[in-house]
Design goal:
The chain has 69 residues and is an alpha+beta fold. It has a domain at 38-69. The protein has helices at residues 24-31, 56-66, and strands at 10-11, 20-21, 36-38, 41-43, 49-50. The strands form 2 sheets. The chain has a 3-stranded antiparallel beta sheet with strand order 3-4-5, with no helix packed on it. Strands 1-2 form a two-stranded antiparallel ribbon. The relative contact order is 0.16. Bound molecules: zinc ion. Zinc ion binds at residues 12, 14, 17, 19, 30-31, 34.
Length: 69
């Protein structure tokens, strides 16, 4: 018997995405990819382009930026 529910309560906040995940950490890991412009180049929440991976603080700002008002 398959008892796997497949429930994924953590939806990606990006408006054009629609993916959802079973753990918030997985969602955040995926969400970062929306700000990866190319290999090793990232767009920060303030619009800056950086060669450093977004920090957890940046991730928080990404989420604020995409949260419904
Ligand atoms: Zn997404």
């Amino acid at each position: 018997m398959n008892i796997h529910t497949g429930r994924k309560p953590f939806a990606c906040p990006s408006p054009n995405c629609g993916k959802s995940f079973n753990a918030k950490s997985n969602m955040l890991r995926h969400f970062k990819l929306h700000f990866k412009l190319s290999s090793g180049v990232f767009l920060l929440p303030n619009g800056e382009v950086t060669h450093t991976k977004p920090s957890s603080k940046d991730l928080h700002l990404y989420l604020e930026r995409y949260s419904p008002i």
